[in-house]
Structures are given as structure tokens and as C-alpha cells.
Design goal:
single chain; seven-stranded mixed sheet; binds pyridoxal-5'-phosphate; about 15% strand; alpha/beta; Aspartate Aminotransferase, domain 2; Aspartate Aminotransferase, domain 1; globular; 2 domains; 12 strands
Length: about 400
Amino acid sequence: MAMLKTAASLSRLGTESAFEVLARAQSLMAQGKDIINLGIGQPDFKTPAHIVEAGIQALRDGHHGYTPANGLPQLREAVAADLQRRHGAAVDPDCVVVVPGGKPTMFFAVLMFGEPGAEIMYPNPGFPIYESVIKYSGATPVPIELREDKGFAFDADTVLAQITPATRLIIINSPANPTGGVTPKAEIDKLVAGLAQHPHVALLSDEIYSQMLYGGREHVSLLNYPEIRDRLILLDGWSKTYAMTGWRLGFAVWPKDLVADVTRLCINDHSCVNASAQFAGLAALTGPQDAAAEMMVAFNQRRTLIVDALNSLPGVRCADAAGAFYAFPNIAGTGLTSREAQDLFLNEGNVATVSGTSFGAWGEGFVRFSYANSAENIERAMERIRKLL
Ligand code: PLP
């Protein structure tokens, strides 16, 4: 038997349970069970055809080699133009770094700032990878508690009050996974104003759901605050907006002074993003936007459907899900813990969801439902859960 000695840091690395739920749901499906998957955080739509064609064409045209580590120049320029169009913010294409998905930016940002003795704040309940990689880096994770009665928006005063001399980085995410919460502009204004007193603190704004807001809400990008541009890492990407999760394509806008460092991390890690995916991403930004818009119309209909249905279940109440494609109902009134609810829904009801505690300790009492599934399946899933409760 081998006697391998792995690094202690490995035991601090967490995971994203949605992938485990997906694996379990798939294995139940393989056994012939009629599973309705409301567990996974990816659009159920196909990547629009013109984007797929651009990727194929790039391969046919011989784009088989390495690209610059920070991304193709024309793609970085298209990203900057898109950010100008969407947020009215001027972005230097040399500050755009293209990476394989949304996740690498958070990993690199945390590696850059995290070490023993450092503190990093992150939303809780929030995307589980934040807490995981903070712990991995050796830094102390400091949760920003997101509360149902605040619509799962962060509270700027609470965030500012938690800053210490050891704070290096604050991670925020709006619209948010798993709650669908959207932070109002007033809180963002207050956070940015307060950060003036703390020039040692960097900000990572995860805006991967920036084009997924409902009910006439408009996204407030942190790019719109020039006073923090020298410490803002803006994370966004193609995965959700263009139904491109499997292509592995994302980007971030970095402070000018950190671009060389993050590019070195890219070179050490993955060299560059695969070339054809970058050409597909270029077509996504410069081509017609109607497929993305149609997807949002469908998501909005399903959102109303699922929020209403959840609110009609005994012991369940669900806040208006303002963004992304998740509903995050409070299930405490059912008498079940989050994990018990997840297991009951999957094992007895054949409906895959994700326990709120998969997104941090403050997720207890909640379950995440992704409505990236057809209206018909959402209705069937709700009926199954109604019978169980
Ligand atoms: N950020 C948030 C808040 C997410 O929910 C996700 C994916 O679920 C990501 C980032 C990562 O996206 P990607 O699949 O592009 O790495």
C-alpha cells in the first residue's frame, strides 16, 4: 500500500455540492428513475447556434494554437466594448483577463491576497467556492451574513464594521447564488463610500449574473465607481448569459497594477483559454443578442411560477427572487433541516435540489431550487413536493 503524504492544505479545500447532487441525480436516472433536476446551476438552453458555429469555424480556420495568456486581443477589446455598452463604464482592454470560466478569477484573487493571518470576507449563504478557496489559502474566512428579511442583499454597515487591519479582500455577489438576491444601489454606494477609510482592502465583485435581473430591476456594476477601480476585481463571463457553462470561458477586469500578477498565475496554471472557445465568446458579444433575451423571458415566467408554487406549500415561504435563476425558500416551517429536505425531495420525490447549508452555515433553514428547467417540469416537481409535505 502506498504511503503518500499530501499537503495539509488539501484537507482545507471544500467543494461545490451541486456537482455531487448532479452526480447522484444522474446515477438515479441511470437506474431508470424519473428525476426532475432543479439542483444544477446552469441554463437548460443550448448555446445559440451562431456562437457554436463561430467556435467550429475557428477550428476549421486553423486556430489550434496557444493564444496570449490573457486572451485574444480582439476578444478583450470586445469585452471592454460590451462593458461600455452595458454599464457605461470605460474599461482598458489591457485590464481584461480572459480565463476558463468564472471560477479561476475567484481562485486567483484569493490566492493573491490570502495567506495565514489575512482575513477575507465572503457572502454566506453564498457560492461555496469562496469559503473553500479562502480556507485553502490559509486566510481566515469572515462571513457576511445575508438575511432573508433584507432580500438577501448585503448590508454595507455590517460589512464595513467587520473590516480589521488584517482584511485584505471583500467578496460580494449580486445578483447572487444561491439566493437570487440583488443588492440595492444605496447599499453599494454606502459600501464604496465607506471603503475610502480602508485603502488596504480590495474588492472582488462577482457579477456573473449581471444580465439576469427581473421585474424591471437594473444591474448596478461596481465598475461604475471610478474611486475604487484601482482595487476592484470585476468577475463576469459567458457561462450563464449565453448558456456556455461547458465551454469554460470567463473574464475579469483587474486593477492595472495586478494584471501582470494574474497573467503569471494564468501562465502557471492553464497557459491560455482554448482558442476556439474564445472565438465563440467573441461571436457571443458581437453577434445578435435575441437568443439571450428569449432565454430571460422564459426564466422570468418560470420564476413567477416557482415562487408562487413554493409560497403555496405548507411550511414554506419564498422571497421574491430578483435575479439569477434560483429560488431560495425558507423551509423551517416544515420541521425539516435543509439537508433532510434535500434528501427527502430527492429520495422520495425524485426532485433534485440543493440544501441551503451547502452554501454556508447561514443557509440552514433554506433549500435552493434552480428554475433552469421547463415550466412543465417545475410544475411536476412542485406537485411531488406538495404530496411529500
Ligand atoms: N460565480 C457564481 C456566483 C456562480 O454561481 C458560478 C457558477 O455557478 C460561478 C461564479 C462560476 O461560473 P463558471 O461555471 O463560469 O466557472
